[in-house]
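quick one: inosinic acid bound model?
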Amino acid sequence: MSNVVVVGAQWGDEGKGRLVDWLAGEADIVARYNGGHNAGHTLVVDGKTYKLALLPSGLVRGKCGVIGNGVALDPEALLAEIARMEQLGLTVTPDNLAIAANATLVLPIHRAVDLAQEKLRREPIGTTLRGIGPAYEDKVGRRGLRVCDLAEPDLLAKKLDALLDYRNAWFKGLGLDGFSRDSMLPMLRDIAPRVLRFVRPVWAYLNEASDEGKKILFEGSQAVMLDVDWGSYPYVTSSSTIASAAATGTGLGASRLGHVLGVTKAYATRVGEGPFPTELQNEIGAMLRDRGREFGVNTGRPRRCGWLDGAQLRQSVKVSGIDSLALTKLDVLDGLDFIDICVGYEINGQRTDFLPASLAAQSRAKPVYERFMGWSQPVKGQKRFSDLPREARDFVKRVEVIAGAPLSLITTGPERNDTIVLHDPFEI
Ligand code: IMP
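yep, here:
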């Protein structure tokens, strides 16, 4: 089986984009299966900076990109991103981008709902305000518009009317202005041909490609702890972010997904609100933020920083079926006197080795740490495991044991080749 699914094993921003970019060199197809333009990553290729949110990053490496049915697709954001890529010299055509006909559309009304909901919440989630959550709400509420509807003008108008009936009643109840058919329908009809040119039966395309032995790389967005079931609900995103979502979100069967690569930083970060047991609100947290450049790609928000939560990581390995881990940003820990890893929690005086489902219990969880010596010789830029200082090797080996999964890759710097390859995920 030559496919690889890349998933975030923490709270997002683990450096998945960079690893996907690295692995894309070996893949034939790179497929997105969840989330929307709430995701974001930056790629620097030949001195050009590509900021991607919706487009699969393999496009930049000349691979075919797929946007699966599990993605919440904002057509305006997509077209704007394509235009930005074309300004950088990357041509996006139906030959290198395929969009699933059954993907859900994110519309301006969803952005407005996202904003209004955040204002209405007594305790805001800190969403990206891209409208992703409300679009998924409409999907499971069975009133959403889908990409294929753009090809059917009459049906599109009918479905839009039904959606507006529902959503405008909500706006009216809050004393807010709703949306009119006259403002939305022309916009949708205008963008329709520009989106429809990319549409094909993605499920069939991926199954055929897999039958032919082509390598598919699944690019997960967000991370296990932001999963709508497995994350710290309700401080989560609205989609399933674990590896099995690659099957439901593209139409390639679960048994054909291949190797699951979980990505974790050597420490932990979180954007937005919600429990984060190992958060460091001190000078070490600030140091991790500065040295790790921990600010959102899309929103610029500073990320909360803390020690690696090994107990949480172990849980992610289990629920997402992670076969091996990529440990990123090891160099950010260079020069620290000591490094802690959380190995379990104390909740109401009781020791537990997993994060319970209850938000209240998660918020009370006090980390139990194992302490490691820091290293004085920098790991930055190292390309061989044997060249790492002994303390760094000990730390890395212990991560494998605590997490319960072997490491296949370690990144030691921002450059593409600042990578230690222990095993090639496509070859395992
Ligand atoms: P939403 O996905 O915009 O609804 O935001 C819900 C939560 O997920 C918020 O805490 C966001 O900060 C978080 N989130 C969404 N996308 C990402 C991401 O790509 N990286 C990190 N956090 C994210």
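The pocket of inosinic acid is lined by residues 12-13, 38-40, 125-128, 130, 132-133, 221-222, 226, 235, 237-238, 271-272 (CB under 6 Å).
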